Amino acid sequence: MEEIMKVDTVEQYNELFGFQTRHPQVGMVDFDKPESQGNYRMTVGFYGIFLKETKGCIINYGKSSYDFDDKTVVSFAPGQTVGYTRIGGMLPKSVGLLFHPDFIRGTSLGQKIKRYTFFSYEANEALHLSADERMVVHNCLAIIRTELQHAIDRHTKGLICTNIELLLDYCMRFYERQFVTRQDMNLDVLGRFEKLIDEYLDSDITLKDGVPSVQYFADKVCLSPNYFGDLVKKETGKSAKEYIQLKMLNVAKEELLHPEKSITEVAAKLGFQYPQHFVRFFKRYEGITPSQYRQAN
What we know:
By secondary structure, this protein is of the alpha+beta class. Helices cover 50% and strands 15% of the residues.
């Protein structure tokens, strides 16, 4: 079995690959020399965002691979397992920005970091850049690199965090562009999602697995929950959870029109283990209880 290393800090990462540490909690790394290469798997304790320039290597996490290999951005978050595989006969070129969660604690970036959902995307959901977008990413990284080469002073943390935040905001914009340019693919995913919800609610799966979850449908369409959720939100204006719950609500209304079915039976069909949970769910959306809805209709 392949050994998985545990690398908790940016400094440990630099020592492992022979990079210079200019700041113990944030750093830039360049994989463009033969001596800096190798195959590895590690669980990290920091954030990382890599711009791959060539097809000389595969950077991924989990069990996924890119659907497009060069000119891509891939990112990872603390606690994820990262892999790096060298492709024989090719010299890879990639640049990475690493920063520890302690570095951004108490900053604007620290407060916003959970909004950057792409840190939990799978590797096959990497961001593919145009030439202009690649230039923007390079410029942001260059500013951060320049600041790291400056002696640490009272401005260092603020300036670096501000520019990391700027870089991540641009990545969010570029991902939104990518959702648009892949609209045909996205609509195919939505069509499958719609069909899967119908199949789930029309079958006995609810009796075994309970209320349908975003994770369940993301797995079925082979996407990470975050990427899947962002795709659904972009295309429908609703979160994946809201979309599922509105479908459940429509099914509930249809079922309640059959007087021979008890509230408990309707609740069970939708995956609710306890009828009172179904009652709360229904009232939250409709403003009335299932019994009141049935009487009114």
